[in-house]
Amino acid sequence: MYEEEVRRILKMVEEGKLSPEEGARLIDALGVEKHPTRKGKYIRIYIHSEEGDEVNIKIPLKLVKVATKLVPKKFAKMKLNEGQVIDLSELLSGLEDEVGDYIDIKSEDGDIVKISVE
To answer: Could you report the per-residue pLDDT of 94-113, keeping only the tens digit for each?
Structure first.
């Protein structure tokens, strides 16, 4: 619906019925994101080592959410070296909000670790 309305406004600008400024104001007034984010459905974990080992896992995010509910709370929190605590359930709850790469590491040895949401 949003895209159709934007096309109509742009057509009116092209035909000279609206100025570019008026068209921009109308598009802004639609109140919808110009580039809506896609929701993630899967988490992909990819690991490649120079020794030839390769891991490529695709897990449905719904399964990950269910699994986090089964993990006892005392194990769902990880402590980092600096004393910072990461809550696994909080970390995973935000993953479906936006598709993209979350971790992309390449070591000097050529090892690769990627975690992304698709």
So the answer is: 666 678 888 888 888 889 98
Nearest 10 degrees: Cα torsion 90, 74, 64, 84: 40
Pair (32, 53) in one structural domain: no
Distances in whole angstroms, Cα of residue 48 to Cα of each of 80, 104, 105, 116: 24, 12, 10, 15
C-alpha closest to that of 51 among 113, 98, 109, 10: 109
Note if the pTM is more than 0.90. no
Q: How many CB atoms lie within 10 A of CB 13?
A: 18
The boundaries of the domain holding residue 58 are: 42-117
